[in-house]
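Folding follows sequence. Below is one example:
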Amino acid sequence: MRPGDSLTVVLHQTRSPDNLGAVARVMANFGFGRLVLSDPATYSFRGAERLAVKGDGVLERMAVARDLPEALKDCVYAVGTTSRTQLKGRVALSPEDAVRRLAEESVRGRVALVFGGEQRGMSDEELARCEDVLVIPTSDVQPSMNLAQSSAVLLYLCHRQGLGPAPQAPDAVEPGARLGTLDALAKRMREVMLTADFLNPQAPEHVLNELERTLMRAKLTQREAELWLTAFKHLGRAVARGAAP
């Protein structure tokens, strides 16, 4: 893995070439190289190089994902950023606490720092894809920060925390469950529980979101997550046979 690859920077629904270039420059400032665009608002980012001073390598290696679950699929832990102080069912971490969590979780695998789009940030549903949420405290005079500013604050803290080259996990630490595997498990659970009439088909999301957060808090290993996924596949077939007329 390249230096900085333990941390993935995800820009969700980014629309500005200038902001993309500025973030690439900040990443180069602090030695981070793994950038993923999630569901970008445009695929025309010509001009980003103008602000990505010496961050061209970040742009060249940049990946594009069709949505947030795809962008996070190889990570074991993600923190979403928001400027909102009122969050539904969530308590925001301070930047310092969030960065410490990122460093702790990076022993289990890749971790992600997710930034929302310039116009609306991240919705509650999008933030639910992240195990934790952080808010940068700002003055009431100007509470909002632009994407380049917030990335500079947080990536500086990540650099100070030592989130650089992927750490060597102790022998006793198994690789953590990738969020892509947990997402597949959650989808399989949804299918099985709907078939078994455990969920209200008109409004299943409340229970499902709570169960998904439980999966993330459980800190499953990749092997454990794959075992649960296999179990629900078999259970789904059995439930479907029982539900058939």
